[in-house]
Amino acid sequence: MIPAENARLPICELEATPEWLTIEAIYYVVECINDCENMLMLAQLRQIFPRAVLTEASRYVKGQQRQNLRLWLTQLNNQ
Is 58 left (phi over 0), alpha (psi -120 to 50) or beta? Predict the structure, then answer.
């Protein structure tokens, strides 16, 4: 289902288990973040992955994608 343009997507409320916090899992989430092309894609990742995992993975995002991530997060949090 495609959400309405201004609809706020839910954020995953699961706690990060030890399996989620392994280096392999973190690097997988880093790849997912690096593949994001827009704010909607990031919002979808926030639905899937626990917040702690996204926070840890975001530390490995560099360059222009890091700037994009900050912009998209600001926009998502202000919706």
Answer: alpha
CA-to-CA distance for 63 and 61, rounded, in angstroms? 7
Residue 35, number of CB atoms within 10 A of its CB: 10
The Cα 76–Cα 43 span in angstroms is: 7
Q: Evaluate if pTM is beyond 0.90.
A: no
Task: Give start and end residues of each alpha helix (H) in the chain.
Answer: 23-35, 39-48, 51-58, 63-77
Tokens matching residue 10:
């839910």
pLDDT category of residue 2 using cuts at 50, 70 and 90: very low
Report, in angstroms and rounded to the nearest whole number, the Rg of the chain calculated over CA atoms.
12
pLDDT tens digits, one per residue of 7-47? 678 899 999 999 999 999 999 999 999 999 999 999 999 99
